[in-house]
Design goal:
The protein has a five-stranded parallel sheet with strand order 2-1-3-4-5, sandwiched between helices. It is 50% helix and 11% strand. The protein is elongated. The protein contains nine helices and five strands; from the N terminus they run E-H-E-H-E-H-E-H-E-H-H-H-H-H. It is α/β, with parallel strands linked by helices. Helix 6 packs across helix 8, helix 6 crosses helix 9 and helix 7 crosses helix 8. The protein starts with 17 loop residues before the first strand and ends in a 17-residue tail after the last helix. The protein has two domains: 131 residues, Rossmann fold, CATH 3.40.50.2300; 74 residues, Orthogonal Bundle (Arc Repressor Mutant, subunit A).
Length: 229
């Protein structure tokens, strides 16, 4: 785990998950940090948003516990900055001055929870547990999308074209007509593409194409199956 002079001491770099606490109230951030460490979580605490944003975060499931009213940059401003920078870290807000409008704004922007001070320890632990689960799901989805893209990049130009026609709903014979190939050649290209994409079935092959956002080839003569009667 990377560290900086700005982070309070005491983190346990287990490498499994990390919780960041940002609050300019030293007693509060220490109390929250101790609570989280008591259940075996690794924690980094910061007295300002600037210190947190400058921190080199390790590549592990993580979440952020963020006070709304900070000296300097507010918690909501930090949330906006993280969103603009595409930092998908789940946020649990805490505040002693929250109101309905503030809560709604934070939740609409993607916050996972909003706790009013003083809060019960269990409420904080539950919120952090949920946020870490969400981050693990997000990371897994990102990995799956990257794997899918790598598989697609391994296809030849012909295989990609066949995949696009299959996703558009065309049968092998129709694809052969579109590509001016024999039907057996189309079957070979489709089989190779399905194998490279790790598709278990034709339906799975089509779903992977849709996940990649593959569109019907330009200039396609045969109408997609969905538009045929």
């Amino acid at each position: 785990m990377s560290t900086t002079p700005h982070a309070d001491a005491g983190a346990d770099p287990s490498g499994s998950a990390m919780v960041y606490v940002v609050d300019d109230d030293e007693s509060m951030r220490k109390a929250v940090g101790n609570l989280l460490r008591s259940v075996g979580l690794s924690v980094e605490t910061f007295g300002s948003a600037q210190d947190f944003l400058a921190f080199d975060m390790p590549d592990v499931p993580s979440c952020l516990i963020l006070d709304v009213r900070l000296k300097g940059q507010s918690g909501l401003a930090v949330q906006e900055q993280m969103s603009a920078s595409r930092v998908g870290l789940p946020i649990v807000f805490m505040t002693a001055h929250g109101d309905i409008a503030m809560t709604v704004k934070a939740m609409k922007a993607g916050a996972k929870d909003f706790l009013a001070k003083p809060f019960r320890d269990q409420d904080m632990l539950d919120a952090v547990s949920h946020a870490l689960e969400c981050d693990e799901e997000r990371r897994m989805a990102t990995r799956c999308a990257a794997d899918l893209r790598r598989c697609y990049e391994s296809l030849t130009a012909r295989e990609r074209e066949v995949m696009a026609f299959v996703a558009a709903g065309l049968m092998n014979k129709q694809i052969a007509g579109e590509m001016n190939l024999s039907e057996i050649t189309v079957k070979i290209h489709r089989g190779q593409a399905m194998r490279k994409m790790g598709a278990r079935s034709l339906a799975d092959f089509v779903l992977k194409a849709e996940a990649l956002g593959i569109k019907p080839p330009q200039g396609m003569v045969t109408p997609p199956r969905s538009s045929r009667t």
